[in-house]
Amino acid sequence: MVEPVLKGLLPPRRLSSQTGLREVMAKFATGITVLTAGGESGHGMTANAFSSVSLEPPMVLCCVSRAARMHSAIEAAGSFGVTILGSGQRELSKYFADWRRPGGLAQFDDVDCTFGKHTGAPLLNGALAWLECRLAHAYEGGDHTIFVGEVLSASRGTAQDALVFYGGGYHDIEPRARQSA
């Protein structure tokens, strides 16, 4: 039986260890994105905590640690870009996950990107798709913030195959021809 947490009567239950949660979540395959913000606090970050929320109005969400530089960059810009990576972009995923890369917009100096016309966020070329979003809502979620963005523009790229993260590693996913039932 699941007991509800009501007005602090029952303490929230926690998993015994972060390692346990990481092991379980490693069994959930996700696409890989690079979140970006433009402006003076411009920044980029690899993320797989990303999802569609609504088609009407068009909205997506991303989850960002409050300790991450990306958190303050999204807040400062009031917007964010999303690049959905293709299979040939493994190194870009690793680059934007490396905390040792340069800060600010300097981290894009050697990256093939285009700055979004609605947000000024860098969008990485050669990807599966891109989104530009206006920050619509921000919700606390543990040690992360759930940023909900209203999609201002969405476009598809030339990449054909997806880059996926599963079981602690990268995998390339090729589209299959649809089979009729």
From TrEMBL:
Superkingdom, taxonomy of origin: Bacteria
Record keywords: Oxidoreductase
InterPro entries associated with the record: Flavin_Rdtase-like_dom, NADH-dep_flavin_reductase, Split_barrel_FMN-bd
Pfam families, A to Z: Flavin_Reduct
MF GO annotations: FMN binding; riboflavin reductase (NADPH) activity
Coiled coil location: none
Domain Flavin reductase like: 25-172
PANTHER family for the chain: FLAVIN REDUCTASE, FMN REDUCTASE (NADH) RUTF
Identification of the protein by name: NADH-FMN oxidoreductase RutF, flavin reductase (DIM6/NTAB) family
Lineage, broadest ranks: Bacteria, Bacillati, Actinomycetota, Actinomycetes, Pseudonocardiales
